[in-house]
Structure to design on (182 residues):
């Protein structure tokens, strides 16, 4: 009987320990980011680790412009073009709903207010176009997000990249992966 009690106590403690760990474990998701390559900017999937939980499309949109180190022959390098030129994404949260959408629409602000410098062979508008495409692809990961209302803040020339976009056609991934300067 003592052996049975010991086993039962061990099972209860293991179950308690496992349930506590689940609440603090990180989870991962994939997000598209505009990654520098030698000749162009490519839309690449990156894995993001987080301790937060919620609508993956919302977190992926925010991660569009996050720092991302890529392993190369020369060691880890920052390759997210949006992060490098200072683009930032912000999501407006509707606190009355879960997921925090406005109906079926995710409201996003893309801040293009930092002056672009040292772009080498790429134009700021090419990086902005690739970043907008990543924002839309990331939002399309969540079936609840049917539309993205994207506002681009910055010079008047860059505001044309904003608008309201449907996500249904993007659920299967990008149709265009490389963005080159024209």
């Amino acid at each position: 009987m003592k052996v049975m009690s010991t086993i039962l106590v061990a099972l209860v403690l293991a179950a308690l320990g496992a349930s506590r760990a689940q609440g603090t474990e990180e989870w991962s998701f994939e997000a598209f980011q505009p990654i520098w390559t030698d000749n162009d900017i490519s839309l690449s999937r990156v894995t993001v680790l987080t301790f937060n939980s919620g609508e993956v499309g919302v977190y992926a949109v925010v991660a569009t412009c996050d720092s991302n180190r890529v392993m190369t022959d020369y060691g880890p390098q920052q390759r997210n073009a949006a992060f490098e030129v200072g683009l930032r994404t912000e999501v407006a949260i509707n606190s009355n709903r879960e997921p925090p959408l406005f109906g079926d629409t995710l409201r996003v602000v893309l801040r293009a207010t930092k002056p672009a410098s040292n772009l080498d062979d790429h134009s700021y508008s090419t990086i902005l176009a690739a970043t907008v495409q990543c924002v839309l692809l990331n939002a399309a990961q969540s079936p609840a997000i049917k539309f993205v209302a994207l506002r681009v803040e910055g010079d008047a020339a860059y505001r044309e990249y904003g608008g309201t976009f449907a996500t249904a056609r993007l659920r299967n991934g990008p149709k265009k992966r490389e963005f080159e300067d024209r």
